[in-house]
Design goal:
By secondary structure, this protein is an alpha+beta fold. α30 packs antiparallel against α31. The longest helix is centred in the first third of the chain and has 31 residues, at about 5-35.
Length: about 750
């Protein structure tokens, strides 16, 4: 039966409307699907790598067996690489033995008491070029299985390439370490929780209790797994498994955002474990600002050469942010596969894959002036020279610089050319010196320590290399100003050094990286250079300046008047940068400038001090954290809290110096106010100083050329009534640092006191 004409007309008339309704309904459903999002404040949690593998098999396969995957593990037949077949190893007169006790891996070595004891290896640490072994202490019977107590890292280590045991000495320490030394394998400097854990495990929570002096450490995964970089994955897994057409409009993929036009997100996600830094906030997730969570150690003379080349172990980030590559938006994954960690290309192709300029411009003898295929023709050997740490671990300098033998001649800094060619002179060394100078860094250290033969050889090699560059490049040779020239002049006390450093602070990034300028500003502040204050005043107002620079600028205010500090720094309590906020708070309290504020403002500073305390207590297993907080509490008039903190400092590191002396000074000050406990406080202060004296004596013996330590020892002797011995130490401090007025003043006062005492006795 056919439809009537009128029905057909109605159908045709309403069809567009029906289609429109259907489209609207579908569109509304799609929009609703897009619009529905996780509530603000939703937090993801860690789920483990097993939740990632099904969808990311290629990445998981690349990750398997990587250094991140093998960063740490339980000691088993599969994970232990060292020889534990009842072998002996000798160092410092100790005969150590590595053996098996059933399934257990055992080490017979010197324990904390000084006696030879047997210890079970619970965990392995690392895989190449060395593997270390860890022993657990202080574990109670009722501790849950998922918690770790104190772990100590043995210095007896396994060379995975040389297949041998070796003793990993601290840098510049040739003598035997005594059990009470913090550098002994049972000391705090070899403690896993203190030195290693947060960069070798995922979602680590140290859980240290200062009152009980015990750890209850946990992690979600024992090694560096997926979520260590990408952040906790529960939200991502949930979003991936739901039926939505879209990812979440508020949280995206539910993971850290590491990709983007800028290289910062990726680099700052790698930086926490590839930098020498302190922790401000342990809740860092990939994509967060590094400088809101970590305090990067500046370029001190102990860690970097004057021109910024690596000296001590600094873990790459501080070097890379000096480089032109960093400032040209290059990121880690341009060279390294982020999952296998291997280089993406072999040999010079790592560099030439990007540096594809005119044919034959770089990877040819006309550029590198060496025979193709030899070590001198490798890009990295000239532009990323290595320094060997931990005896067997060569690490390359990531500042990717052009070798500057001319700076070596002028400043004594290293250069890649001399690093290779100094070996040509090894034949002229006696056997003892040759044994000491295993690596180029050793030559530099020996010269710095006063070895004239080594110093002359270095100078000769530097000049030879500089002459070669002059011959190769002639008038076209580039020798631009380098920030190292300012540092070297200032640190040597040369005329014009201060002016050079002041100019350096104001240089643009293309001339001097922010890292170097922040270091220069910090050193000017430490030296009390008043001209640094106006520069700092402008920097703290410049919100576009790097956080490193602005934080260093705040530190300079330690030399300002209390009124100026209160006026300029109080507004920074609202600064967007945590490092700036914390440093402003600390300086206002430490200088006493907080007392210049109105009551309401003072209350805000005391509230901000909670953040400073939180930052310090990230290292609550170190005496220094409690010592620093106690000093701030004294300035705030919180004497009871200061006393608690000094006691915590002594408890967590009983063999450290500083806490007892400061505690004694506080007690003497409180006793002077009188009261029923005054005599008790005075007696306790004397007891604390007596206990501190042998510890400071130990430190003075360990660093005889450190003027400040000799000065502190002299003061300690004086406060313990040993004037004659104090006189010797204070004279030593003055001889080591004659320009320091405090040392001169203390020595003069002591001489005057001793003369008056002698006159009274006569």
């Amino acid at each position: 039966m056919s439809k009537s004409p009128s029905t057909t007309k109605r159908t045709r008339r309403f069809a567009p409307h029906l289609i429109g309704v259907v489209i609207l309904m579908i569109g509304s459903a799609v929009f609703a699907d897009y619009w529905i999002a996780k509530p603000e404040g939703t937090e993801a949690h860690f789920v483990g790598r097993a939740a990632c593998i099904d969808c990311h098999r290629e990445q998981a396969e690349a990750f398997r067996g990587s250094h991140h995957d093998l960063a740490m593990d339980i000691a088993t037949d599969e994970t232990v690489l060292g020889d534990f077949q009842n072998v002996t190893f000798e160092h410092d007169g100790l005969i150590n033995r590595m053996y098996r006790d059933g399934k257990r891996f055992m080490v017979h070595t010197e324990g904390p008491s000084g006696a030879m004891e047997d210890f079970e290896v619970k965990y392995v640490f690392g895989v190449d070029p060395l593997q270390q072994y860890m022993v657990e202490f202080d574990r109670s019977d009722d501790m849950p299985e998922n918690e770790l107590s104190r772990l100590q890292v043995l210095r007896i280590s396994w060379d995975t390439q040389g297949k041998r045991w070796f003793y990993l000495r601290p840098p510049d320490v040739n003598e035997k370490l005594e059990p009470e030394d913090p550098l002994h394998w049972t000391g705090i400097a070899q403690r896993w929780q203190t030195m290693c854990a947060d960069c070798h495990s995922t979602d680590l929570k140290t859980n240290f209790d200062p009152k009980a002096n015990r750890y209850h450490t946990t992690f979600s995964e024992i090694d560096v797994s997926c979520e260590a970089c990408h952040g906790p994955g529960s939200m991502h897994v949930e979003l991936a498994n739901n039926k939505s057409l879209f990812w979440d409009r508020r949280y995206g993929y539910g993971l850290s955002k590491l990709k983007g036009d800028s290289n910062e997100a990726e680099i700052q996600s790698c930086a926490p474990c590839h930098s020498r830094r302190g922790v401000m906030d342990p809740h860092f997730r990939g994509g967060d600002s590094y400088f809101d969570h970590y305090a990067l150690e500046l370029m001190s003379p102990a860690t970097y050469h004057a021109d910024g080349q690596i000296k001590d172990e600094v873990y790459v980030f501080g070097s890379f942010i000096q480089s032109k590559m960093y400032h040209k938006n290059i990121r880690c994954s341009d060279c390294h596969d982020p999952h296998s960690l291997q280089l993406k290309h072999q040999g010079n192709e790592t560099c030439t894959s990007c540096h594809q300029h005119a044919a034959g411009k770089y990877d040819v003898p006309s550029h590198h002036h060496h025979v193709p295929g030899t070590a001198g023709a490798m890009c990295v050997n000239c532009h990323m020279p290595h320094t060997t740490y931990m005896e067997v671990d060569p690490r390359r300098d990531h500042s990717l610089r052009v070798p500057r033998p001319d700076l070596s001649v002028k400043l004594g800094t290293p250069n890649a050319c001399s690093g290779c060619h100094i070996e040509d002179l090894r034949k002229d060394l006696d056997s003892a010196t040759s044994e000491q100078a295993k690596h180029y860094a050793d030559w530099l250290r020996l010269a710095d320590e006063g070895n004239e033969q080594i110093a002359q050889m270095l100078a000769k090699t530097n000049q030879w290399c500089d002459d070669a560059c002059e011959q190769w490049y002639g008038k076209e040779r580039h020798q631009p100003f380098h920030f190292g020239e300012a540092f070297a002049a200032f640190r040597a006390g040369d005329p014009g050094g201060v002016e050079a450093m002041l100019r350096l602070v104001n240089e643009p990034d293309e001339v001097a990286p922010a890292y170097a300028r922040a270091t220069a500003l910090s050193e000017l502040g430490q030296a009390g250079v008043r001209e640094a204050l106006p520069i700092s005043r402008e920097l703290i107002k410049n919100m576009d300046a790097h956080p490193l620079l602005r934080t260093a600028a705040v530190t300079v205010y330690m030399n300002a008047s209390a009124e100026r500090i209160a006026k300029d720094l109080f507004p920074l309590l609202e600064d967007e940068s945590k490092s700036v906020r914390d440093e402003a708070t600390r300086v206002m309290i430490a200088t006493g400038a907080v007392r210049e504020l109105e009551d309401s403002q003072r209350s805000q500073v005391e509230l901000a001090a909670r953040s400073v305390k939180g930052t310090l207590m990230n290292a609550s297993d170190r005496s220094g954290a409690h010592l620093a907080w106690a000093a701030l509490c004294e300035q705030l008039g919180r004497y009871g809290e200061a006393i608690d903190s000094y006691q915590d400092a002594i408890r967590v590191e009983p063999n450290s110096t500083g806490a007892r002396s400061n505690f004694a000074e506080l007690l003497d000050s409180l006793a002077q106010a009188g009261g029923p406990q005054a005599a008790e406080m005075t007696a306790l202060a004397k007891q604390l100083r007596r206990a501190e004296l042998p510890l400071i004596a130990r430190d003075a013996a360990l660093v005889p050329d450190n003027a400040h330590v000799q000065y502190r020892y002299g003061l300690a002797l004086y406060l313990n009534g040993k004037d004659d011995e104090a006189l010797v130490q204070l004279q030593k401090a003055v001889e080591l640092a004659p320009a320091v007025e405090d040392y001169q003043t203390a020595l003069r006062y002591l001489k005057e006191k001793m003369a008056a005492d002698a006159e009274n006795e006569s």
